UniProtKB/TrEMBL annotation:
This is Amine oxidase. It holds the Pfam family Amino_oxidase. InterPro entries: Amino_oxidase, FAD/NAD-bd_sf, Flavin_amine_oxidase, Flavin_MAO. Gene3D superfamilies: 3.90.660.10, 6.10.140.1210, FAD/NAD(P)-binding domain (3.50.50.60). Belongs to the flavin monoamine oxidase family. It catalyses: a secondary aliphatic amine + O2 + H2O = a primary amine + an aldehyde + H2O2. It comes from the Eukaryota. Its EC number is 1.4.3.-. FAD binds at T48, E67, A68, V276.
Amino acid sequence: MTSRDGYSWTPMDGLKPGVPSIGVIQPAQNLSSHKDQYDVIVVGGGYTGLTAVRDATTAGLSVLLLEARDRIGGRSWSSNIGGYPFEMGGTWVHWGQCHVWREIVRYGLTKGLENSFDLSHGVNHFEFNTASGSAIMSHDDEDALLASALQKFTNVDGAYGRNIMPQPYDMLHVPEAARYDKMSAKDRVEQIKHTLTPHERAGVEAFVLLCSGATLETMSFLEFLHWWAMCGYTYQGCLDMLITYKFREGQSSFAIRFFQEAMASTKLSYSFSTPVKRVANQSTGRVEVETTSGKKFTAARVICTVPLNVLNTVTFEPPLEQGKVTAAGIGHVNECVKVHAEIADKTMRSWSGITYPDNKLMYAIGDGTTPAGNTHIVAFGTKSSHIDPEANIEETKKAVQGLAPGRFDKIERLVFHNWHKDDYAKGAWFFSPPGLLTDHLDAMRARHGNVLFANSDWALGWRSFIDGAIEEGTRAAATVKAELLGSITSPRARF
């Protein structure tokens, strides 16, 4: 089935909106005409919503899933084109991410992963294009350069962040850490610029921008320290956990397992292409949810998984507390652009490169070999040099070619999803501006009457990652089960 989301381009077909995905659910709804009351309504079918739906239905609760898109997965989904999966959003997983790995084991997918990197053949080098010139170096030299730069960047305590953030699930366990949330990455670079070589400065700036999808001025230094701590305080940990292991069949092959298990429980009703416009706590203790088409449903509890940048598009009654409203008004800052390119050059499978700061796409790696034998390149751009890839396909091709001048001239295919212009995301994965987390994280996580808010955007651990989404879905479902299973008299809630 083809989703409305995403774009593809080939020389023969030109630019086409919509790409195929096994995450598209058909039929689009299974609602009963006489049923509008449920134990739980889950708003949103990303990994947070899917986890909550799965956990609640398998516990025996009747659940309604309302999803604005025509597919599951939210900001993590894959498109299978010509027998090859292109990851449109969140991609990489690792056994160091405890929640996601629990699910990979649950669904028997431990042998379903593959390595994005293959350095066994081809050019096998790193290409570094900066304002001070171009350089070709080995991947060992690439790693040494970035490791040195990131150690300088994170070493605020003489221990590369271990002392200032010893427990990353409790980010402010050391109260002094809060002051780093008032700093931007730009502030930190200015502090250490005298210690950095020109290559180190370009490398560290490009790497942290890859993580934030923002600008150096608008990204929180503390949030990068949190990523660093979650990765074990090392560059190698970042490489392993952030950009190495992915599903051989694509993210949607993982997400569909959650949905199928929930369906097998016979407790799941769902409706796709169904945006929600209003969520109201009622005096009866139930919650009413109204869709943009005017349909109304009620439940004992609602789990709202709407991302932070979209939260203010939903009306809540009574109005949300000011801290949550303020956080949603500030929003996160990630405007990452992710573009897949199929290149007719087999030797580039073992290539990686940074072109910074003068290219619209900044960082890229060889990420696979397509069935046609071409190299799959995945490239990233940021808000610092923003591009809407569908707006001018020639400009997008030029940005891809600029990553490796003379090597990427023959582009066979482009595939991408413009998250910045996505009405149900308004940005890519979460990355906070200075001050947002210390001022508003608790408010972002707080419930509102019988409405619980769960999203990777305010997870405690792998915030903004698939793991964080599962963490949040697990938390919300556990709360709902604890509150409802003891009070609902229907036998269906107990078995």
